[in-house]
Each structure stands twice: as C-alpha cells, then as structure tokens.
Amino acid sequence: MPALTADMDNESVPLLSSDNSRTSLQGRPGYTEPFDSPEVQNFLRGATPLPLVTESKQSPPIIASEPRKQSSLVTIFVLWNTMVGTSLLAMPWGVERAGLIMGVILPIVMGALCCYTAYCNVATQAAYGPAGGEISELTRHMLGPRFEFLSKLFSYIVLLGALIVYWILMSNFLYFTVDYIYTATTGGFKDIDTFELTGSEICLVDQVKSNITADLQPSVFKQIWNLGTVPIYLIALLAPLLSFKSATFFTKFNSLGTMSLVYLMVFVVVKALSWGFNLDLTNPSSVHYSELVQPSFFATSGTLAMSYYMHNIIITVMRSNKNQRNNARDVAVGYGLGTGTYLIVGSLFYISFPLAKTCIEDNMLNNFASWDVLTLVARMFLFFQLTTVYPLINYMLRYQVMTAFFSSPYPSLLHVLIFNLIVVVSCVLFAVFLPRIGTVIRFTGAISGCFHVFTLPCLLKLAGQKQSGELSITSLIIHLAIPVLGFVNLVAQFFVSDS
C-alpha cells in the first residue's frame, strides 16, 4: 500500500528542492508544503544519497538549496521501493478476484496507465510549473485554488487509508505472534513440524464454518486475545508514539521496508516451489479450478489504483534525477519493475496455491496456520516495520492537516491529542468491524485514484497544451476519457464483493 504519499509504502522519496523557489507561495494563507518537514523528507528519501535537512528549534526547516543529484539507477530503485508496499500482500487475492488472465492483464494495463499519468505530472511541472513546486503548487498554478484544495484533500484520504490498513495488519500480526508463543509454551505444537514447508495452508472459509459448531466455549485466553480485542490493545503500544513534535527517530528504520519486500518475495517463491503447479482451467469441479475472467475484476483494479499511487510525490522523486532527459525512461522502468513484482508475487502464489483458489485471502499470510515458522517470521518482521512506519505516516498527515487549518504543525498538545484520537478511533473501528485490507485498499485507491491518478494529471496536461497552443481534438478526447475510466472504476467498487 504506499504513499506515500501517502503511499501505504513510501519508504524512499528524495528531498524537496529549494525553498527559495517557492517563497512567493509561503505567505499565502492556508498554504502547506506536504513534505517540507525534515523528518518526513529523511523518511521518504530512503537510500538516496541526498543532503540532510537542518532545522532550528526557533525557525522553520531549512532545505538545502542545491540538493545532490542521483543517478538513474538510484531513481529507478526509489520508484520501485516507494511503489511496492504492503499492498503486495493482497496481490494473490487480486488475481483471484480478477481471474487468471484478467489478473495478469489488469496489472499491466493499470501499470501502463498509471505510469503515463504520473509522467504527465512530471512533464507538466517541467514545462509549465513554478520552479521547485510540488503537485499542489502546480495544481494551483495551472488549475486554480479549488483544484489545489482537492489535491490536498485526496492526499489526506490516502494517508488515512494507509493508517487504517497498517492498524489492521499490525493487529493481525500481533495476534498471530502472541498466539504462536502461547500455543508453543502450552505444548500445542508438540506433534507438529513447524519448519515443514507444506501442510500449513488453511482455508478461512472452511475454518469459520467448522468453528461455528466446534468451539462454542472458547478458552479464557481466546476470549481475551482475539482479532476483535487486539486492535484495542494496540492503542497502548502506539498511542504514546503519536504525539512527538519530531519523528526523526522513526526515520532510522527506513531499510526495513526494502528488507520486508525482499523477504515476502523470497517467501512466495519458496512456498510456490514447495507446492508445485496446482491449476486446472478445464474442470470446474476440480479444487484447483480457475476462471480466466471474473466479473469481480474491478476489486483488483481498485487495489491496483492504490498500488501504483505515486502521483503526488512523483515530481519530488524525479526532480533529483541527475539527467532530466531520462525522466520518461526512468519512470517507465520504475513502473515496469513494480508491475513485474506484483505479477510475480500475485500470479506465482495463485497458480501454485494447493487449496481452492477462492480460499485465497486479501492478506496472503492469513492462508497459513500460526505454527508455520516462515509465516511467523514474516509477521514479526512486518509488525516491527509497521510500528515504526505508522507514527511517521500519522506525523505526515498531522503535519499537513495542522498546517493547513492552524498554520502550525504543532499548534498545541490538545490539538494533537484530539487529532490522534480521531485517527486512532477510526483505525480501531475498521480493525474490529471491517478487518479486510482488500476492502480498504480498493476503496481508498478508487476514491483518491479517481482524482490523483486519472483526473488531475489529464487536466494538467490539457491546461499545459492549451497554454502552449498545442491542444488538439485527439488529445482532448483521450485525456477526458481517462478520468471517465477512473470514475467507472470508483462506482464499480460498490457493486463487487471481496469474496
């Protein structure tokens, strides 16, 4: 998931450029620079070798006026690392929702479309945008303050969606980790080889059906520790981390994002090799039968809109590219690598999964029993990573909202506590009553993607062409058709199911 943007997975975005270039904008009431916080920049920058931002305790952050440029190779890695995040866990489910053929076609088509619209932002900024401006400044410059407001609003939605997904995942990972420890210490695994590569697969649909009659009197531990209570317990761990004025500490764990992605890919490859080929395209009665196309494929397109969401940070990423003439190529390669990663993980897991394809969960780790050691390591690794990312994403959202409404990133402790309360309660409610990351990701992606991915880049492109006298009927038709596709994708989310 991103961004980020608000990308549920924005572990690596380069530094912003000179603040001198946007001096004229800073005096405007309600103006915010979404990524001018040094802590946020250090987090987003990730592995890119750019200079640090310094901050005086009595003055605003000072941004280096000439940020060091980076090679195309580093830029491409940043694009890939930023794009591919926790939504990777939902890719096998996305293939199941779309069907085998559509599950391969959709990531390619959506990846190409998102790549094009992302580059529209980069090209429009380079040709017509204010020097050193970000997407919000470009939007105001080309389309006016109303569209700038919408640009910020949908960025907030993406950040909040990411926080909700993270809370659901952290609750899930914490529950299964503690459940493993409890069961292991009480001798529950004495007859199980927890290092066996196969045999740990489960189908939650069948498990729920059996639990209805099998466990009418759960143990005291199960009553206290379950997926409905853990999201509440998680408040005690995370709440103290959300009110700091600075989030510098949490930026020190940037590399965990890349390590988690690599582990998940290795995890899927190892499991797939141990399972073998389990796919039947001809016999509907086979447990391994797969449809080529499913009518619920819009659930996948909504998820992909979030998975490819980089549009409100792509200008920042590409500004630090050493050779600006390579921007088009580097954006294409970065999106190509992201698409390839999604295809490999999603398709490989789907084709090899040994149970019915309808059993595949929107969090693929839910398809494994708690005693599976490889899955346990993944859950523990991801839990620690998300506990360091969540406070920083919350900080990013708080910084933007507080600066927009109160002209200060930290107006008072009371303001911050009220803000944190609203965010945390929202996250807990989703984690308790709608703990499905697929649902949250696809709706967040479809809602924000409708504006940031499909509509805004096309309007910016058309505005630039009109300004330069290059607007044609063909371009007008194409760039008005793309927002229509985004709107159809959004509306369709209300008519498809998650299972």
Which descriptors apply to this entry?
499 residues, mainly alpha, Amino acid/polyamine transporter I, globular, disordered N terminus
Describe what is shown at a glance.
The chain is mainly α and 499 residues long.
Description:
It is found in: Late endosome membrane; Lysosome membrane. The protein has 499 residues and is an all-alpha fold. It has a single domain (20-495), classed as Amino acid/polyamine transporter I (Up-down Bundle). 62% of the residues lie in helices and 1% in strands. The chain has a two-stranded antiparallel ribbon with strand order 1-2. Strand 1 and strand 2 (61-62) form a beta hairpin. It is globular, with a radius of gyration of 23 Å.
> What name is given to the CATH topology?
Amino acid/polyamine transporter I
Regions with pLDDT < 50 over 5+ consecutive residues?
1-36, 42-66, 209-214
Beta-strand percent range: under 5%
Number of helical segments with 4 or more residues:
18
Fraction in helix: 55-70%
Work out the radius of gyration.
23 Å
Would you report the number of β strands?
A: 2
Transmembrane segments: 73-93, 99-119, 149-169, 224-244, 256-277, 297-319, 331-353, 373-393, 413-434, 440-464, 476-496
Membrane topology: Multi-pass membrane protein
Protein name: Amino acid transporter transmembrane domain-containing protein
Main location: membrane
